[in-house]
Structures are given as structure tokens and as C-alpha cells.
Amino acid sequence: MRSVRMQGIERELKTRWMGHPLTVLDTVDSTNRYLKQRVSERRSMAGEAVWADAQTAGRGRLGRQWASPEGRNIYTSVLWTPPRERMSGVLSLVAGVGVVHAVRAATGLDARLKWPNDVVVAGRKFCGILVEAGVDPTPWAVVGIGINVIGKPDPQFPHATTLEEQTRAPVSREDLWLHLMASLEGIYDQWIRAGDSWAAEAWSQCTATLGQMVRVERPGAEPWIGRAERIDADGGLWVTASDRQEKVISGEVSLRLADGRYAP
Known about the structure:
By secondary structure, the chain is of the alpha+beta class. Helix content is 24%, strand content 28%.
């Protein structure tokens, strides 16, 4: 169902810059693609956001499809313009912490982060984050966030859940979006002040991954199993096995628990 409230929700924002201006769309191929197009046309500004009630070509990490049915979930992207020297994998860490804080505040659920860019509750995924960035004409990062909110997930995704399924109560997409913008603004501003190491520590406090035995899978390579030990300030994850220690980068691997399950 189309959200009528979203048409005027920018007036409800208490943020200084996050979520301003806001474009509300009934349908779009991808909120990330829409906002990246505005960046390429030099018509965008820091904090600009887009919301869609449905996506026809939503994407996740490694080109995976993100199911985007109409009127049930949050499909939103925001534009960040960090300093050039701060452009790294840490952007996903910052975004993840912002999502966790927003969901915890709005629902009381113990939301946690699965490296590199998923948010889970009770071991099941309800949110994916996709950060796409560049430096032309100036440094920019489009932060795409998809949150499963209403009803139950498609049975073909057994590792997925929705916030309503977990709370067993109605959850307002619009209220959650307001929480999300406020949380992202606070976390981003704190990261700019405190630095990348702070972001890595903040992410570690919300993790569902560190301390777990995980399976590292790369295309064309044999999977291997080790313990997820720590996160670096650039977003890389250190995994240690009896015969190796390696920092894995989000763009090149998939991570599962040692037995192949999706998440703790």
C-alpha cells in the first residue's frame, strides 16, 4: 500500500541535514541508482534521501537481487559526502551501526550486525545495506538500506524475517524511517569527529559475527573455516584458523557459519 504519510514526512524530521531534501516515489528500479544518477548530474546534496514504496530492480551485495514488494518494507537511500581520506569500507560499518541503533530504539529488538552488511535478529536477516561510492566530481557515497518491516518474508528466503514477525506487533515504516534518519545523522557526525577506529569499535559492540567460527567462501577457491577475530578500521574482517590468519574484504567473499548456516 502506498504511504500517504511519506509525502509530507520531511516536515516531521528533527535532523539537521540527514533526509533533506527527500524524494518520495511510488516505484523505482533502485533507490541507489536513482540517487547515483542525481550525483552524476550534479543535482544532489549531502543528506539527500529517496524513498520508494516498491523497487523493480533492488540489489544487494555481489549483485544479488533484493526482493522489493510494494508497501511492505523500507527501500531508501541517502547521500553522504565524506572527506576523500575517509572513503573506505568503514562507510558500511558506520551505516550498519546507524541501522542497529534505529531499530533497537524503534522496536526494542536486539538487532545485530552480520559482517559485512546485513542486520539480523535472532539469527535471521531483516535488513541489507549497500554502499556505492566514488570521487567524481567530489567524494560521495550512496547508502542504500532495505528493511523488511510488514508481514512475513517470502518462504523462498528461509533465513529472512521481518520486524513485525519478530515483534508480533504492528511496526510503522514511517516512524522507523524517522528513527533511521536521526540515527544515521548522529552516528555519521560522531564518526567524522572520532575517526575510523571508533567506528570499528562501535560496530564490534553490535556484532553477531565476532567470536564465531565462520566459513569463508571465494569464487574459484576452496572454502576454509576459522574464527572471526576482529574488524579493522577499513572494514576488513580478520579470520584465524590453525594454519592461517587472513583479513577478508567484503567485496570478494561470502561468510557463513562453519556448518553453512546463514547467521548465529
